[in-house]
Amino acid sequence: MAAEFNSTLKGLNLDVNELQTEGLLYSFALNATIENFSEPQPEPYRSNMASNVFCYSVPVNEKILGHLYISEFDKTLLFSWNSLTKESKITEVQVLTKDPYTTDQINCKGATNVSYILSNPQCSSNTVVKTNCFNWEESPRLLYKITDCTLNLYLVNGLDEDRILNFDFDEEKNITLNQEFKQSDNIDCDPTYINEVDCLKTKWNPIVAEPCIVAEEINGTKEKGVYQYMIAYSTYSGIPLTGFKSLTQPFHLTEKGGGIKLNLSNISNTSRYRFLTIIAVETIKGITTYHKKGVITVNQKLFIDTDNGGENISINNLLTQYPFYKSSNDFTESNNILFKAGVNEYEKFNLQPVINLVETEWVSIVAKEGDYKDPEFANKYKSVIRDEVYTYGIKIILDNSELGPVFPLIGRAVKPSDEVLVASNVYDCNNMATQRWEVENTAPLPYYTSPLSLPELSQNCECKQIYQSGEFAYWRSSETYPNNKEIWGDLCGQPIRHFKFPDIAISPHQSNNSSYDNGNYIFPMGFRIKSDMKLIFDEAVTKGLITQEQRNRIVGYKLVRGNRVGNEGVLAKGLLYDVWSYDRKEEKDPNFKSCDTTSTPIGSFFQVNSLADPNNTPGDAVTVNLLGAMTSSNSAVISASDVVVDLNPGVAGIQTSYLVPTEGNWVYNSLTGDLTFTPINNTVLIPTPINISVNELTTGLTDNATVTVSYLEEVIVPTNDVGIGVIRWDLWHNNDDYTNRSLGPNQYHNRVPFFGRETGVDSVNASGADQVVMDQEIAYAKEAGISFFAFYWYFKWPALTVTSNNNSFYAREFFKTSTSADKNTVKSAYILSNTLDPLQDSWASPNSPPLLQIGEDMNRADYHKVLVDGVLRPLVFYHAVGSSDDKMTSLKRQNLVSAYRVNNPTAPEPYIVNLVGTSGTDAFNSISSTKAQAVGTYGSTGNASTTHAYSDVAAEDVEIWNRYKNANAKLVPMVTVGYDRRPRILNRFNYENPNNNDWSETATNAELTAHLQDAINFVIANPTQCEIKTLLMYSWNEHDEGGAICPTIIPDGNYTPHTYAINRERLDVVKTFFG
What angle do CA 278, 280, 282 make, to 5 degrees? Predict the structure, then answer.
């Protein structure tokens, strides 16, 4: 019996004969899909199954790390990494058609054949991003979001910083990088963009500046009250993207009908954050409210607030602190919110050891009675309370607007006079002795008082000048700094020190005006940091506390003050004198003592503070008054007749004058209390501090003090922040004929220096042993922006006396005796040779005549100093002649430093540069073995025996820079002008190697320009290793060796004395960069 067919079956059934299939049943299907069996259609909906087609060829060395399908655009983004170029790339890929095949029906002998032809191309591909700033060695995790006008891409991979990229798209869904993520010229109103990714703008937490707000009163309708403002980077609708910042000082409107204009500055306009939300904190009749006042663009510099109110904002929203995570291992999205996992914070670092070094002072200004009615004045000059203790700290600001922890500032150290015991019955009745700082204000008298009059100082201007400044009183807590040496250093376990301001006996808060109608003067007091905080942060790098990369992230700091609520030491103050007239009392009120006053303080003291008068003009006499530094035993004002001053306590008797050889004379005026130092000349910069003894006649008490006077040496900083020195080799001086012989042949007359002349067809006179010549050289160098001449000092040639015809000696002496005003900017430095005088080992003792002379010269005002860690240090080069292995030994260095400090014991060490061989290893060893600060070379020769091309000379310089850099050595890069020594080859000298015929071309102007630019770029790109930002050039006057930039004559065949036209082309190249 035949089997019955079940006609209700649907789909694919391989067990049935195709003759039995009908309707919804199939016995065979290939690459097909049945998508629908809906009735009443007679047959199901069928379609071809999708297949793979060739779309994109991956370039060599490129690896696909991930892909993201954008369904709304029907496009796929490929994310790739090139292991060779280190480039990260995003490629947009789209399949052009869902049916990549076409049919071609051909009738052949009555049969129909169907052939399938692959259409080309099947996909489109387009690189939308290519950059070196992403670290995509690991596959990134990817998410996207589509807004009304942008495709926002989010990328994390745990290695690179988390990134955001936004793309624009058109109606055809073609995507291009949003211009806010492109590099631009940063012009506020009309920036020009280039199609390159700006890496900084792609950071999840972009680099933004800390806004600054300055308030100003205008007309308006605001209520009388107190107003403060906060600001945050935000979206155009006011949703904050950062925490709210820059809470301003209170701004008081004393009458109804005012308004406030906010002047905005330091706003980032190059990040992807394009808007700012401004919040007003309004306190009216004791009630504080918070209002959103508006949203502005980052290019807007002003905001006007003329009325009260606005959208109410919760204080909790304003206090929200946004987290700062550098990278994440993964993330996901839910309800339009991103959730990160495996987050990694930015590295935290400890700056406390260098914050401990910060120097501070109190300052006061002059105001007039009634000035605080002006809201702008009250906003700027909020005064502290005298005789009160405050805590201060530094909070660093990082480039992504993240705030670091608070690093406490340290109050001043204790002095012996602070801890003098005084009888308690002077202050109370319990007969217990106590230390002076616990019951008195120990701040000394101000060490600075402005020479301007009070009326001049009281004028309200953009920034008031300081009236007085001084040292804080000593104060310490019963609590101690934590026992963590790494953070607190020597302060570990010591009592915590805060800042106690002086009382009115030291710094009065008001002064009587002789004409009361004009009002009295008042003296608001504040806190100031004396130290250069940039140098403090740089010191953290030097000490290894942070890396240079971390230092670069520090863009600012905030001075913060501890909350004193509940911790006030002074609860109230009042006027205990005639309120209509106040003259400062110079003696304390004897009625202050409330108990038996028959006892005297235990250890009554007389105190003299040390004095320092810095930054004087070289050559000027300097006068300091000693009386202001003295505190009498009874706190009375001291006059000159109350004390006896001895300028040289080590000698019997009272010395009122003291002559210091090679420095100057100190003289004390016993009628006025003035101590005057008169230097012998303008080369004395730091005279030896003088130690004095002062005796108080009424009590016989004595105290000692040190008086220091110093002079300001001008520090010249080139416009490109890089300085340059030139090597001098001065054999052309005096009667030597080396240069005359070598430049005698006619073809070399164009190398004759500007002061020389032609004397015949094959003869010249290039002698320049003349003061006028040196002065002109200094003028040329000044015009070109040259910082210093590096004079070569040979110890061996011959004994160092004027009569010895020593050539280099003459050059140095003419420089030292020059009175040219251009020496303010063109200084001298020395290149010391390793060769020794056979008659005396010049390096063996710090007392050898050459070293003593060098030490003396390094203290001169016209000797070049370099700024290192905020300290000016004389620059010294040490050249290993004939031996690339020679290095300045520790003994040589020690003796050099000792000779330098003979007349200046506290002087900072010289900055020594070892001119060594071309090996990076040698460079590194020279520093590690001798503690020389840097290395360099005397010049390069290129392929002198073969190609002779200057391009090889420049390339050798660059190679050496990089060798030293790669050897981790600090360096002074050499810029070689040339090595065309053919004049010397033609005229052999006794010191020449007869077999040495090597030479290389001198640079053309274009070649020298390019090489100098490369050198400057190298210094700027390597600030840590090129820490003194200085180049050394070979040379100023190596005329017969083809390396000179000193101007030369233009030969004209006239052999009689006359004025030549001058060629100064190479000097002008230097001037282009430094002049």
Answer: 180
Closest among 720, 768, 729, 753 to 939, alpha carbons compared? 729
C-alpha atoms less than 13 angstroms from C-alpha of 1044 in its C-beta half-sphere: 23
Strand residue runs (E) in 632-754? 643-646, 657-660, 664-668, 674-679, 690-696, 702-711, 723-728
Beta bridge partners of 1022: none
Q: Crossing angle, helix 1005-1021 and helix 950-966, to 10 degrees?
A: 10
Instruction: Tokens for 799, please give them.
Output: 């004994």
Q: How many residues does the chain have?
A: 1075
**CA-to-CA distance for 590 and 596, rounded, in angstroms?**
12
Please give the DSSP secondary-structure letter assigned to residue 638: P
By CB atoms closer than 10 A (0-12, 13-18, 19+), residue 574 is exposed
d(CA 575, CA 664): 50
Q: Is residue 552 within a helix (H) or strand (E), and if so which, with residue range?
A: helix 548-553
Residues sharing a CB contact under 8 Å with residue 652, sequence separation 6 or more, in sequence order: none
Ordered DSSP codes for 22-35: -TTEES--SSEEEE
Q: Parallel, antiparallel, or unpaired: how do β-strands 611-616 and 643-646 relate?
A: unpaired
Contacts (Cβ under 8 Å, ≥6 apart) of 819: none
Token pair listed for 524: 């608001």
Start-to-end Cα distance in the chain: 115
Q: What is the pTM of this model?
A: 0.50
Q: Which of 720, 787, 714, 758 is nearest to 1033 (CA)?
A: 787
Q: Which of 63, 56, 57 is nearest to 138 (CA)?
A: 63
DSSP state of 187: -
Closest alpha carbon to 1002 in 1047, 941, 960, 1073: 941
Q: Phi first, then psi: what are they for 943, rounded to 5°? A: -90, 70
Which tokens hold the place of 334? 């839910």
pLDDT of amino acid 121: 54
> In angstroms, how far is CA 834 from the centroid of its own chain?
36
Q: Report residue 136's pLDDT band, with 50, 70 and 90 as the boundaries.
A: confident
Phi, psi of 383 (to 5 degrees): -90, 150
> Are 1058 and 756 a contacting pair, CB within 8 Å?
no
Q: Is the pLDDT of residue 231 over 90?
A: yes
Contact present, 987 and 744 (Cβ < 8 Å): yes
pLDDT band for position 43 (cuts 50, 70, 90): low
Q: Are strands 1000-1002 and 763-765 parallel, antiparallel or unpaired?
A: unpaired
What is the mean pLDDT of the segment spanning 162-176? 90
Nearest-CA neighbor of 692 among 642, 633, 627? 627
The number of helix segments (H) and strand segments (E) in the chain equals 18, 69
The predicted pLDDT at position 516 comes to 46
Tell me the DSSP string of 559-604: EEE---TT--S-------S-TT-----SS--GGG--S---S--TT-
Band the pLDDT of 432: cuts 50, 70, 90: low
Q: Can you tell me whether residue 880 is helix, strand or coil?
A: coil
pLDDT digits (tens, 9 = 90+) for 669-714: 989 999 999 988 766 777 888 888 888 877 777 778 888 887 765 4
CA atoms of 160 and 136, how far apart (whole Å): 7
CB 98 within 8 A of CB 105: no
The rounded distance, in Å, linking the Cα atoms of 463 and 685 is: 32
* Sequence letter at residue 567: N
Residue 687 phi/psi, 5-degree rounding, is -60, 155
Rounded to whole angstroms, how far apart are CA atoms 333 and 336?
6
Mean local confidence (pLDDT), 908-935: 71
Q: How far apart are CA 570 and CA 551, in angstroms?
A: 40
Q: Is 218 helix (H, G, I), strand (E, B) or coil?
A: strand
Q: Are 901 and 894 in contact (CB under 8 A)?
A: no
Distance CA 672, CA 500 (A): 32
Q: Which residue has the tokens 């609590």?
A: 479
